[in-house]
């Protein structure tokens, strides 16, 4: 929510001026209005007119947003630069917060309590960065926040990871498929457990999260469903418990559980350490109780810290700012499943590695360090906590020991959400060690989809696949789901997977009965592929680009057959976007997206 709040403020102001002012005139007018506002606490007529002329809802219903993109970087630099200068010239936190809150409310972005809460929670961290990083500039901040719009910081230098060249060991460890029973791996992700969910409350509210205790719907049709709701609502405890109980009863032969993050709900303007800690403990302890001796390998999602997204930089000692509490909590709660040797890296930055069994290694990353709305990247974005360099060392040892590796990582690297520099270095690592990495597992998007990695030296060669487990939350317009993978017990390749879901509309008609979970699909059967190897999936994307029935199927399954999601339909641009997501493992490498787009349009 806060990420959208910031973008909306910028783009609303951009849109307001985009059709009337250009260049220096825009910058000077914008800056002067903000400076006057900060110093006096009152809006100038010009700034007030800007907001009244172009209210946010109208702005974001425009189909052509190219004028906004054209001046977004300028607006971002002007707004943030003005605030940085004001702070360094003596403006206090209270002044700056008041300005931001007034603008947020005036622009009809979200209700006043949400504006106030989000700004209050994040202010301390941002002010610390401005006060303690002398070279922090608006250009640096905007180049990270709006990297998808190609905003630049000319003073920024890209960083690289030291990756040793291939050795005689760097060849594919291609073992024959085992004749033994495959391992059954369960992926759970994105629970977004909401302790404040209330059945019958208002499911159609103006806030980023609805279905909250004490809220009253204006119409019976807006009442929150028993099991959860398609609208902006998260997962009640009774739905979470019923879902886990179903999985344990339905799949009695699960060998391993991967949990890829996001326990905390979307009420990001009212989080605190105590509340997040309690929710994390409650969920993890229920998983322990339910799965017994079955090993669970968890990682952190971007919603786990307080404030949301903010995993602090190394060396930030202030307890109200640093993220040590979430690492301490994770180390304590995860120790039931992870050996003592993982403790140091968990306490350092929330990542770890261990053997699942001899020859089979798992790596749990904290990829939230790459999330471009982790604002501590403004402070230091150079391989936070040395995690990527650590990953290289882990994979070198795995290569030397002839181990196969699975990687768990909450944030997919292919979209614009992952810092481009981090994503590029991660892609280099995957390219170097693809021969021992047989699969990656992501969360975050809530969609049931896959991303294919390609050889940067030989773009026609697909080398790796990242699978996404979808979400237990229905947030938003999705059916809840989980995924069961069949993994070869010798070479640890993913042989197939099943996505299981329930229809939320149907479930809410019968609140006294448990939801009717069903196998949504088997990937091999649904798409007619011989296996789930990278090259086979790459060929599938080409067939999809030529075959409307396949692109329609992918849209339906990606949305987990949600009634509301499917009702929106998927036009040509939507289908191309789905195809491009499948073949983009690093946002700056658009080659395969361009190829599929050309095939689709031919």
What does this structure look like?
- It catalyses: a sphingomyelin + H2O = phosphocholine + an N-acylsphing-4-enine + H(+).
- With 602 residues, this protein is of the alpha/beta class.
- It has 2 domains: 2-149, no CATH class; 183-601, Purple Acid Phosphatase, chain A, domain 2.
- The protein has 21 helices and 12 strands.
- The protein has helices spanning 2-18, 23-40, 45-53, 56-59, 66-88, 93-106, 112-132, 138-145, 237-250, 273-291, 324-334, 343-349, 387-400, 420-433, 504-509, 523-527, 534-546, 548-558, 563-567, 572-582, 591-601, and strands at residues 183-188, 256-259, 296-298, 352-357, 360-364, 404-408, 437-442, 450-454, 462-468, 481-487, 494-501, 518-522.
- A 6-stranded mixed beta sheet has the order 3-2-1-10-11-12. Strands 4-5-6-7-9-8 form a 6-stranded mixed beta sheet.
- Helix 14 (420-433) links the parallel strand 6 (404-408) and strand 7 (437-442).
- Helix 5 (66-88) packs antiparallel against helix 8 and helix 17 (534-546) packs across helix 18.
- The two termini are 39 Å apart.
- Residues 11-23 and 51-67 have low confidence and may be disordered.
> Tell me, what is the CATH class of the largest domain?
Alpha Beta
Low-confidence stretches: 11-23, 51-67
Q: Judging by the overall fold, what is the CATH architecture of the largest domain?
A: 4-Layer Sandwich
The whole-number mean of residue pLDDT values reads 90
Euclidean distance between termini CA atoms: 39 Å
Number of domains: 2
Organism: Ignelater luminosus (Cucubano)
InterPro entries: ASM_C (IPR045473), ASMase/PPN1_MPP (IPR041805), Calcineurin-like_PHP (IPR004843), Metallo-depent_PP-like (IPR029052), Saposin-like (IPR011001), SaposinB_dom (IPR008139), Sphingomy_PDE (IPR011160)
Family: Belongs to the acid sphingomyelinase family.
Keywords: Disulfide bond, Glycoprotein, Glycosidase, Hydrolase, Metal-binding, Secreted, Signal, Zinc
């Amino acid at each position: 929510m806060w990420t959208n709040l910031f973008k909306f403020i910028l783009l609303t102001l951009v849109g307001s001026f985009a059709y009337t002012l250009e260049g220096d005139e825009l910058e000077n007018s914008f800056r002067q209005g903000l400076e006057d506002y900060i110093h006096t606490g009152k809006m100038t007529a010009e700034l007030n007119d800007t907001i009244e002329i172009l209210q946010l809802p109208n702005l974001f219903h425009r189909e052509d947003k190219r004028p906004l993109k054209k001046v977004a970087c300028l607006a971002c630099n002007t707004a943030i630069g003005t605030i940085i200068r004001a702070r360094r010239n003596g403006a206090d936190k209270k002044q700056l917060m008041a300005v931001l809150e007034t603008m947020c409310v005036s622009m009809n972005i979200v209700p006043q309590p949400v504006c106030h809460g989000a700004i209050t929670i994040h202010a301390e961290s941002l002010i610390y960065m401005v006060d303690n990083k002398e070279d922090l500039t608006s250009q640096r901040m905007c180049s990270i926040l709006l990297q998808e719009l190609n905003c630049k910081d000319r003073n920024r230098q890209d960083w690289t990871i030291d990756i040793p060249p291939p050795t005689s060991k760097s060849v594919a460890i291609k073992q024959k498929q085992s004749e033994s029973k495959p391992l059954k791996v369960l992926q759970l992700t994105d629970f977004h457990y909401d302790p404040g969910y209330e059945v019958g409350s208002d499911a159609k509210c103006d806030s980023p999260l609805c279905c909250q205790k004490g809220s009253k719907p204006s119409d019976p049709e807006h009442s929150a469903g028993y099991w959860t709701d398609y609208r902006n609502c998260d997962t009640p405890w009774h739905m979470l418990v019923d879902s886990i109980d179903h999985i344990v009863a339905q799949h009695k032969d699960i060998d391993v559980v991967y949990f890829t993050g996001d326990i905390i709900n979307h009420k990001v303007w009212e989080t605190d350490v105590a509340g997040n800690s309690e929710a994390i403990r409650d969920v993890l302890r229920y998983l322990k109780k339910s799965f017994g001796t079955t090993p669970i390998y968890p990682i952190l999602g971007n919603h786990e810290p307080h404030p949301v997204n903010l995993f602090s930089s190394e060396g930030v000692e202030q307890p109200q700012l640093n993220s040590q509490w979430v690492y301490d909590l994770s180390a304590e709660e995860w120790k039931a499943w992870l050996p003592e040797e993982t403790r140091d890296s968990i306490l350092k930055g929330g990542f770890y590695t261990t053997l699942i069994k001899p020859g089979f290694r798992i790596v749990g990353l904290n990829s939230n360090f790459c999330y471009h709305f982790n604002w501590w990247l403004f402070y230091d974005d150079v391989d936070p906590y040395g995690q990527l360099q650590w990953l290289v060392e882990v994979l070198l040892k795995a290569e030397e020991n002839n181990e196969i590796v699975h990687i768990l990582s909450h944030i997919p690297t292919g979209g614009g959400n992952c810092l481009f520099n981090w994503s590029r270095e991660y892609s280099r690592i995957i390219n170097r060690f693809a021969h021992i990495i047989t699969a990656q597992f992501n969360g975050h998007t809530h969609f049931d989809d896959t991303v294919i990695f390609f050889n940067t030296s030989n773009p026609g060669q697909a080398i790796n696949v990242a699978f996404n487990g979808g979400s237990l939350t229905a947030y938003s317009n999705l059916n809840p789901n989980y995924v069961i993978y069949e993994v070869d017990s010798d070479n640890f390749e993913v042989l197939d997977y099943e996505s299981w879901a329930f229809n939320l509309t149907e479930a809410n008609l019968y609140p006294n009965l448990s939801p009717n979970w069903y196998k949504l699909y088997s990937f091999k059967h649904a798409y007619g592929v011989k296996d789930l190897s990278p090259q086979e999936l790459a060929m599938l994307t080409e067939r999809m680009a030529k075959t409307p029935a396949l692109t329609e199927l992918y849209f339906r399954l990606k949305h987990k057959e949600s009634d509301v999601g499917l009702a929106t339909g998927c036009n040509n641009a939507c289908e191309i976007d789905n195809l491009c997501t499948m073949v983009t493992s690093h946002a700056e490498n658009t080659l395969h997206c361009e190829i599929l787009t050309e095939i689709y349009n031919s």
